[in-house]
Design goal:
Elements: H1 2-26, H2 32-35, H3 42-60
Helix pairs in contact: 1-3
Keywords: Membrane, Mitochondrion, Transmembrane, Transmembrane helix
Organism: Rana japonica (Japanese reddish frog)
Protein name: NADH dehydrogenase subunit 4
Length: about 70
């Protein structure tokens, strides 16, 4: 129940971010709101966090999927 919700939200955010980055990089110059992000590592940190969070939750309480 709660694990499914967390994983589903993580999947949605990660997919949306990945598609947006693919779309933004394949269609010419980056939009102005992306260029003004400082520091530029914010996007990478968020992506890593959203990928690592489900793993940590499963390590801390594996009974959530059983």
């Amino acid at each position: 129940p709660i694990t499914f919700l967390i994983v589903a939200l993580n999947l949605i955010f990660t997919t949306a971010y990945t598609l947006y980055v693919l779309w933004a990089t394949q269609r010419g110059p980056l939009p102005n709101h992306i260029k003004t992000l400082f520091p530029y590592q914010i996007r990478e940190h968020l992506l890593l966090f959203l990928h690592i969070l489900p793993g940590f939750l499963l390590i801390l309480s594996p009974e959530l999927i059983l």
